[in-house]
Amino acid sequence: MRIVVTGREGQVARSLLEAAQLRKGVEVIAVGRPQLDLARPDGVAEALEASRPDLVVSAAAYTAVDQAEDEPEAAFAVNAVGAGKVAEATARLGVPIIHLSTDYVFDGTADRAYVETDPTAPCSVYGASKLAGEQAVAVYNPRHLILRTAWIYSPFGKNFVKTILRLATERDEIAVVADQWGNPTSALDIADAILCAAAMLGGEGSFSAFGTYHLAGTGETNWSGFARCILDTSKALGGPKARVRDIATADYPTRAQRPANSRLASAKFAATFGWRAPDWRKSTDIVARHIFNRS
Ligand SMILES: NC(=O)C1=CN([C@@H]2O[C@H](COP(=O)(O)OP(=O)(O)OC[C@H]3O[C@@H](n4cnc5c(N)ncnc54)[C@H](OP(=O)(O)O)[C@@H]3O)[C@@H](O)[C@H]2O)C=CC1
Ligand SMILES: Cc1cn([C@H]2C[C@H](O)[C@@H](COP(=O)(O)OP(=O)(O)O[C@H]3O[C@@H](C)C(=O)[C@@H](O)[C@H]3O)O2)c(=O)[nH]c1=O
Ligand SMILES: [Mg+2]
């Protein structure tokens, strides 16, 4: 099976490329700028056709949450129009699409983990642009899996784990918000889950459970708890050390508003695909070992 993933250097794209190396019968090809530029929709179909996919993983996105508040047109061009173009191209090629979306489609006012049927109400431009992307993907290709995930970290690219490790080399104490709750999710786990789902989509027998799924790490924490776990792990592996101080969201002003509760219930994905993420602490340890070259 030939899987084409959009974006070359993204966390999910790089994790998929790495995961595919360990599997027989799966080839992952990453296509990104300049060949495939989601902000220039005219070339999207051509770039995907040229890579002859059996399945497309739509992972590329405008992911700068605060910056999106200042350039909503750019965020919507990539996350809504661009995602729709990718889906349209897959429909024309007659192949399914696995599209990545986010917990930030919710406003965070629920007092429990969100399920797939909960009403969406994004409180940021990024969240709104990703929601518009979900809707476009669903319109253009009925053979879609929309995977809403959250708080992605990995050995690759920019993410919270790498930011906290960097800050720990610069400071003795790091102040981190303790009133936003969610599920840290390793991109290495997402890649594993995607390959598991892809095998079912492309396997014998007709797959019919297309639709929207939540797919996040097992267990929940807040950003401060996540930072503590990262630094405990770092200390144990001989990496940088720092203390974490709990603060409130109001003490850490940002351009974009973020949901106070963005916990996702991933039971539907587990029931359909027989795959569940490891505990988030276990996955944090694995990613930290990759970063420190200690796996
Ligand atoms: N990061 C997170 O915490 C979360 C992410 N998601 C979603 O999961 C998906 C994967 O996220 P992640 O791997 O972390 O993303 P990254 O931010 O690591 O990577 C984004 C990728 O998108 C590419 N990209 C950005 N703009 C364009 C464009 N105009 N044309 C083509 N490619 C472009 C980037 O390319 P380049 O390398 O050239 O910059 C990069 O490869 C995204 O859809 C995101 O919205 C969902 C929940 C949480
Ligand atoms: C670096 C830092 C962040 N924070 C806070 C800010 C924010 O509320 C939280 C996380 O910071 P980030 O910049 O990683 O947050 P953010 O970029 O909003 O992360 C989001 O990215 C997009 C793409 C998603 O789809 C989401 O699931 C989520 O992962 O921690 C601190 O309190 N102290 C710090 O030192
Ligand atoms: Mg960020």
Automatic annotation (TrEMBL):
Details of cofactor binding: Binds 1 Mg(2+) ion per monomer.
Reactions performed catalytically: dTDP-beta-L-rhamnose + NADP(+) = dTDP-4-dehydro-beta-L-rhamnose + NADPH + H(+)
Cofactor(s) listed: Mg(2+)
Leader sequence residues: none
Residue ranges of domain RmlD-like substrate binding in the record: 1-285
EC number from the UniProt entry: 1.1.1.133
Gene Ontology molecular function: any one: dTDP-4-dehydrorhamnose reductase activity
Pfam families in the cross-refs: RmlD_sub_bind (PF04321)
CDD domains reported for this sequence: dTDP_HR_like_SDR_e (cd05254)
TM ranges: none
Enzyme class: oxidoreductase
SUPFAM superfamilies: NAD(P)-binding Rossmann-fold domains
Pathway: Carbohydrate biosynthesis; dTDP-L-rhamnose biosynthesis
Keywords, alphabetical: NADP, Oxidoreductase
This protein's record includes keyword Oxidoreductase: yes
InterPro entries associated with the record: dTDP_dehydrorham_reduct, NAD(P)-bd_dom_sf, RmlD-like-bd
Keyword Cell membrane belongs to the record: no
Free-text function comment from the UniProt entry: Catalyzes the reduction of dTDP-6-deoxy-L-lyxo-4-hexulose to yield dTDP-L-rhamnose.
Family: Belongs to the dTDP-4-dehydrorhamnose reductase family.
Name under which the protein is recorded: dTDP-4-dehydrorhamnose reductase
Lineage: Bacteria, Pseudomonadati, Pseudomonadota, Alphaproteobacteria, Hyphomicrobiales
Gene field: rfbD
